[in-house]
Amino acid sequence: MDDQATQDESAAHAHQYDATALPLGLRVLASGINTYLRAIKFFSRHVVENAAPVQALQRAGKPVIILIWHERTFQVPSVVTICPRPLYALTSRSRDGAVIGNVMRAFGMRNIQGSGTGASANKKTNPRKRGAQAYRAMLQVLRRGETVIATGDVPPGPARVAGPGMIHLALRSGAPIIVLGISRSKQYRLRKSWDQLRVPVPFGKLAMVFGDPIEIDRDTSEARLAELQMEISDRLNDAQKRAEQITGEKSD
Fold first, then answer.
1. Are β-strands 198-200 and 187-189 bridged in parallel, bridged antiparallel, or unpaired?
2. Which residue range(s) make up the domain with 153?
3. Which of the chain's ends, N or C, has fewer CB atoms near its CB within 10 Å?
4. How much is the pTM?
């Protein structure tokens, strides 16, 4: 087998995991994570700020895009208790993404699998990631008046910098973007991961800070969209900092 064939096989294997049909070992892992997150949720004190706008939009059957930073992926199940309608979560078709998708489904969330490529990869999106299919699926969901929750930043980074994908999705769907900062007073940081993923630890305080809806007109220019990309990064960082202030989370 030549080098190109080896690379193609590796890429295909990396993005073939389906959250609805995991191998037994990964299903057991997802079940264990689900149990762990439920225990943490039960033993945590919750503080929520500015949830009224997203709740009002959902009750009115309006589409919404909620954005968080990728490092807070394990905190997403806690958002379910705040929202009156189901959330459609975007996860990758990688092994890790499929496990996370399986965990989220156990919390009553819906799953859309597919992903793009972050700017630091310095390459085009791998079609095997099914980013285009996921984009179309999210567009259909939003046009039905549902809510999509996704990460503003995309692997492999840069972290805490919003990519253009969700902004263009908001433009086409007419859905407002609502940023969400999430923090826990007790957590473990995986410092070697590209986003320094936070893994929650039992007990302590959980804070969720929602931003106000950000509307994007259909006739918005490309130049303005680039500006909005920076503004959304700033707003999400502001919401994240506020959540960290509430819990006393250290940023170092």
1. antiparallel
2. 16-247
3. C
4. 0.86
